[in-house]
Amino acid sequence: MINHPQNPYVKLLVVFGRDDKDLLQAAKGIAQGNILFRGESVVVNEVKPLLPRKPYDAPKLGAYRSSGHLW
């Protein structure tokens, strides 16, 4: 994480890799949220593959047929 060179209110997350494979692995690790960001740098050694979700499986959403209002 570095400061934006032109805007002091913005931070930039810089991701490095030796090749495309390393960058993809880092992106997957960050997207899964299993990486603890501490210190000057973080190394993503391995990423567990995600299993496919079951159809209509949305664990973080409530039942869409409930009698609630959106507004």
From TrEMBL:
Keyword NAD among UniProt keywords: no
Domain of life per record: Bacteria
One GO CC term, this protein: plasma membrane
Membrane topology: Single-pass membrane protein
An individual GO BP term: UDP-alpha-D-glucose metabolic process
UniProt keyword annotation of Membrane present: yes
InterPro entries: Cell_synthase_bac
Subcellular localization(s) per the UniProt record: Cell inner membrane; Cell membrane
Keywords associated with the record: c-di-GMP, Cell inner membrane, Cell membrane, Cellulose biosynthesis, Membrane, Transmembrane, Transmembrane helix
Major localization class: membrane
Pathway noted in the entry: Glycan metabolism; bacterial cellulose biosynthesis
Family to which the UniProt record says this protein belongs: Belongs to the AcsB/BcsB family.
PANTHER family: CYCLIC DI-GMP-BINDING PROTEIN (PTHR39083)
Subunit structure, as described in the record: Tightly associated with the cellulose synthase catalytic subunit.
Task performed by this protein: Binds the cellulose synthase activator, bis-(3'-5') cyclic diguanylic acid (c-di-GMP).
Protein name: Cyclic di-GMP-binding protein
Lineage of source species: Bacteria, Pseudomonadati, Pseudomonadota, Gammaproteobacteria, Enterobacterales
